[in-house]
Write a structure and sequence with these properties.
Largest sheet: 4 strands, antiparallel
Strand order of the largest sheet: 1-2-5-6
CATH class: Mainly Beta
Mean pLDDT: 88
Shape: globular
CATH topology: Neuraminidase
Order of helices and strands: EEEEEEEEEEEEEEEE
Structural class: mainly beta
Length: 163
């Protein structure tokens, strides 16, 4: 059985899973992908239906969306803004700003923190080597290390074999 069509088909978007729902943030659409999409779309796996969950705090493509502790975190853009979305209250909560402006970055959540890797810095005009870590308990970002080489338009996954 084929899945339902998205409300708006987008490219260069970011996706994550929380519970039995797939979330897709932002992206491009239109002729030559000339328009940025400003919505978060959600797909309820149990009923096979797409819907618009909310409006993104800033409409862009190439952001990172991850789930952590029953919330969604939206990071990476042409600014240093980052936000947490609470699906229960349907409210965006600003969090600490990232250290770098990074678009088309990778993002992953593991061990209670959000990590953002690489990307492209529009303000510096360069690809980034750095990796930042966000700790929700301290509401702070820190640059934790450099990647072996600069990367953009890449994915991140975490495979953790802990107890």
């Amino acid at each position: 059985m084929a899945a339902a069509d998205m409300v708006q088909v987008v490219g260069n978007a970011s996706a994550t899973v929380l519970g039995n729902t797939i979330y897709v943030a932002g992206g491009n659409y239109g002729i030559k992908s000339s328009c940025s999409y400003n919505k978060i779309q959600s797909y309820k796996v149990d009923i096979g239906q797409w819907s618009i969950l909310t409006t993104c705090p800033h409409a862009e493509y190439g952001m990172g969306l991850v789930s952590l502790n029953s919330s969604l975190y939206l990071v990476g853009s042409q600014t240093t803004l980052a936000e947490r979305f609470d699906p229960d209250t349907e409210e965006w909560i600003p969090i600490a700003r990232t250290k770098e402006r990074r678009i088309e970055c990778g993002a992953v959540a593991t061990l209670g923190c959000v990590y953002v890797t690489g990307g492209y810095s529009c303000s510096k005009g360069t690809y980034l080597h750095s990796m930042e870590k966000y700790d929700p308990h301290t509401d702070a970002w820190d640059i934790v290390r450099d990647l072996p080489e600069a990367a953009r338009l890449h994915g991140c996954i975490c495979v953790y074999h802990g107890t």
